[in-house]
Structures are given as C-alpha cells and as structure tokens.
Amino acid sequence: MYWRKICYLGIVVLALAACATPEQKAARQAERAAAEKAAQQKLQLDLAAQCDTRTAELMREQMQNPTFLSDPANAKLAEEYRQRVNLPIFQSCYKLAWDNYINKIKLQQAQNWAMQRRWDDDMDWMMFRPRWCRGVHNGRSYVYRC
Fold this sequence. Notes:
Elements: H1 2-18, H2 22-51, H3 53-64, H4 75-85, H5 88-123, E1 132-137, E2 140-145
Antiparallel strand pairs: 1-2
Helix pairs in contact: 2-3, 2-5, 3-4
C-alpha cells in the first residue's frame, strides 16, 4: 500500500515536471526561431562567400544592421551592395552554390538510406521477418508465406 502511494506521487511529480508554462513554451519557440534564422543567415553568407567575399561582407553588414540600406551614412555601401548583389555573374554563381548545397544534402540522405538499408539486410538473418510471396493458381493470384 505504501509503495503505491510513492508510485502515484512519483507519477504526479513527473507529469507536473513535464508540463511547461506558456511563457516557457514561447521562450523555447523564440529561441528555436532565432537559432533557425541564424543558421539560414550563416548558410546565405557561406554560399555568397563562395562567389564573392566582398559581397558576403556587405551581406553580413546588411543582416546585422536592419537599417543598412536606408541609413544615409551607409548610402555608398548600400549602393555597392545593391550593385554587387544584382550582378548576373553573382546571381548565377549563387544559384550554382545553392544547387550544389541541395545536391549534397540529397546525396547525404541517399547514403544514409543506403546504409540503413544495408544494416536492415544484414540483420535479417538475426531477426524473424515473415516473407510474403505472390503466386498464381488457376488464373487467380494469392499471397503466401515463403
């Protein structure tokens, strides 16, 4: 009887500890959004740096300072930023870098899938997995265990 009370108390404590207040949930969501935005900006800067380092530096300044393009003190830098970003050679290079990044991700996913598939195939001899075969008798198809 005594151990039941302790178990119930433990379950209640765990349930209450697992619950988060709306403020905590909002704070976690804001942290996740900020981290995601920082990762996206880092990726953009890395891709731009592959094409032109000066443009990447200008992009970094623009990302750190939201008023970079409208600030009169930065008018010369803002115009240089616009010109460099709108160059067709930079845009095509950036597109190629982006496509290369996407293809690397797809290749990694395919390699992970192939490795998982090989592991599953290697483990078949250890695990019981029923095999199903298809057959035809008198023109009717049926499924049976091999």
